[in-house]
Amino acid sequence: DNTHIHGFEIRDDAPNSKLNKIKDDKNLIQNILQYMDSLITTINSDIN
Fold first, then answer.
1. Mind listing the pLDDT tens digit for each residue in 22-42?
2. Model pTM?
């Protein structure tokens, strides 16, 4: 497994990721996913 996050925990509003324990905490995973979803957008310029 390779957990790879750049600059995630340096933001003041970021949840504490506790990367070494993430696999054991489904609530923590959900909080991180919700937070990341609020920051990240993607655009596929090849659609249609």
1. 778 888 888 888 888 888 777
2. 0.48
pLDDT of residue 47: 76
Q: Tokens 């979803």 appear where?
A: 37
30, 36, 29, 28: which is closest to 6 by C-alpha?
A: 36
Structure tokens at 48: 């249609």
Task: Of 41, 36, 2, give the one whose Cα is nearest residue 17.
Answer: 36
> Are 8 and 21 within 8 A, CB to CB?
no
H helices of the chain, in order, are 26-39
Do residues 26 and 34 make contact, with C-beta atoms less than 8 angstroms apart? no
